[in-house]
Amino acid sequence: MNIRSYYPASTSKKRLISYLWITSTLILLFSGCAPQRSYEAALILADIAAQETPSQWKSTTSTPNQKEITYRIRNRTHRGTIYLPASAPPQAGIILVPGIFPLAKDDPRLIAFAKTLARARFAVLTPELKEFRHLQVRPEHPRIIADALLYLANRPNLVPPGHLGLGAFSFSVGLAIIAALEEDARTKVQFILGVGGYYDLETAIRFFTTGYLSESTHYPNPSEYGKLVFAATSLNYLADSTDQTVLEKMIQIKIHNPEAEIVSLASRLGAEGKAVYMLLHNTDPKKVAALIQALPSGMRQLIKNLSLSNKDLTQLQAQLFLIHGKSDPLIPYTESLALAGALPPKQTKVYLIEQVLTHVDFKFQSLFTRAFWTEELPDLWRMYRVIYALLGKRAQTDQ
């Protein structure tokens, strides 16, 4: 067992017949309203489900141009991958920020989604956040995302003015929103698409360590992946090299075998390393706040800096589309509700997905099951609405 055990696998190719049927159904149902956009949204929904496998969207649109780029913003050098439509100028731009996974911007799922959007005439930039490859979050990451926004915003040949946004997944939703709050970037961002994001980091930490949303609401099997990211990030804030070495060994053991026992290594940890270990192995939600306060000061500051609940969100000018799976085992769906509740109702729309979205991956039952008709089809309608709204952010698109 390896690190991929911590997040869902890609959708099976055997389900493509279901996706094609879904596409046809949606086209018939919604072709009466903004027909071209409805048609495209239906095809895109099926293409997202198909990922790298064939789809009608792929067969009817040109393969996007893809290029690795290096760019500078105020003496800061960054790298990324840009995806551009091949047959016509872009009608909008979007920065896609991956979740904190080892392949970062080169994760096949992110590449597939970037190409899907480029086929829809988006200029797509996926910035390199190299620490993601080591499961680490850094305080400079929001600035890197903001610089990617400035790069596209300064290229009207790629992005029509007023048609630039962000798309982010998992913990990166918070990073993207903080980037959109940067003084030099906030007026550049018109929309944010967030999948499975957080609002208050302490709440998210309590959930992925103990499974508790509140004292009375408990999720029995929270994902261990959040613990890995937290532990890996903490390595930069441990003063003792022995703590770093032991904790790194623990991480590698868990990456290769999530069921492995690491208690025997804990006795070798010093005070700071043990503080991290105690938080990640605590199961009592009442102890989480105190255990966070026992962390190294740099780690406490990072949690404060990257949380959204302590930010002045009135400065955020972008419209938010928030998608969250109700069965998300890593970040609870209540975090997207809390984020939406901190903003004016007209600025945010939340789409809660009952079945077909786990954390950032889709899953479907057979077309012929009762669950598909009663639970998954309504979810697909919600997903369709998100895509339809996103396509409406393009210039010169039918309304």
Can you walk through the features of this model?
InterPro entries: AB_hydrolase_fold. This is Alpha/beta hydrolase. Helices cover 42% and strands 14% of the residues. The protein is built from 15 helices and eight strands. It has helices spanning 16-30, 35-50, 56-60, 108-119, 141-153, 172-181, 201-210, 225-234, 241-256, 263-266, 271-280, 288-293, 297-306, 334-341, 370-391, and strands at 65-73, 76-84, 92-97, 122-127, 164-169, 191-195, 319-325, 348-353. An eight-stranded mixed sheet has the order 1-2-4-3-5-6-7-8, with helices on both faces. The relative contact order is 0.14. Residues 1-14 have low confidence and may be disordered.
CATH architecture of the largest domain: 3-Layer(aba) Sandwich
Just give the CATH class of the largest domain: Alpha Beta
Helix content: 40-55%
Placed side by side, the strands forming the largest sheet appear as: 1-2-4-3-5-6-7-8
* End-to-end Cα distance: 48 Å
Radius of gyration: 21 Å
Overall mean pLDDT = 87
What is the CATH topology descriptor of the largest domain? Rossmann fold
Strand content: 5-15%
Annotated CATH homologous superfamily of the largest domain: Alpha/Beta hydrolase fold, catalytic domain
Shape: globular
Characterize the biggest β-sheet.
Answer: 8 strands, mixed
Structural class: alpha/beta
**Secondary-structure element order, N to C:** HHHEEEHEHEHEHHHHHHHEHEH
